[in-house]
Structures are given as C-alpha cells and as structure tokens.
Amino acid sequence: MARLEQVITTMVEVFLEYADNQGKKQMLCKDELQALLQTEIESPELKSKINPDDIDEAMRTLDKNKDEEVNFREFCRCVTILATSYYRKKHGKGGKGKGKDDAAED
C-alpha cells in the first residue's frame, strides 16, 4: 500500500477503534479522545503538544458543533493541527510573508 493511502486508512481505523469504546459509535467522547492521544502518540515531539490536563480544552477547540463529542471531521482537524506542529518543528515556522517559492513548500 502506498504511504499516503496507508496514512488515510490508519486514521480511519484508529478513529473507529477508539470511537466504538463508549457512548455513540463513530464519535469520540472526552475519555476516548484522551485514550487515543495518549496511546497512539509516542513521539516526544508530538507528545509535548498534548498535555493530558488540557483534554477539556482540546475538546472545546475540536468540538465545533458543541455536542461534547468529536466526530471524524473534528478528529481530522486534530490530526491536522498535530501534523502542522510537527512540520513546523522539523522545517521552521515558514510560509507566511515569504516569497511565493517558499510559500509553495507549505
């Protein structure tokens, strides 16, 4: 399987695995989100972005429809935030205010 395809299928599988533990199926409650983030992220670079004491804040940030659960779309936003953070750590802040050649890399 190609790498990007693997990333996509893994995101879906991980979400569904944790979303089916408590509450509504295909939705993450706060405890499920916390378990997912604590278990599925091992890298110190990314783990440092996730403070277990701040799961409530993460829920408020991700839960745009205010139903106290995270759906798959909201989960994808979480993964995007973590991926962007990792990218910036590896390649510098970059992007905004630079020439078009530099901005194209973001």
Automatic annotation (TrEMBL):
Record-linked SMART domains: EFh (SM00054), S_100 (SM01394)
Under what name is this protein listed? Answer: (spotted green pufferfish) hypothetical protein
**CDD domains from the entry?**
S-100
- Signal peptide region: none
Molecular function GO labels? calcium ion binding; calcium-dependent protein binding; transition metal ion binding
Start and end of every EF-hand domain? 50-85
UniProt-listed Gene3D superfamilies: EF-hand
Any Pfam family the entry gives: S_100
Q: Give the domain of life.
A: Eukaryota
What InterPro entries would the database entry show?
A: EF-hand-dom_pair, EF_hand_dom, S-100_dom, S100_Ca-bd_sub
Q: Name one GO cellular component term.
A: extracellular space
**Lineage of source species:** Eukaryota, Metazoa, Chordata, Craniata, Vertebrata
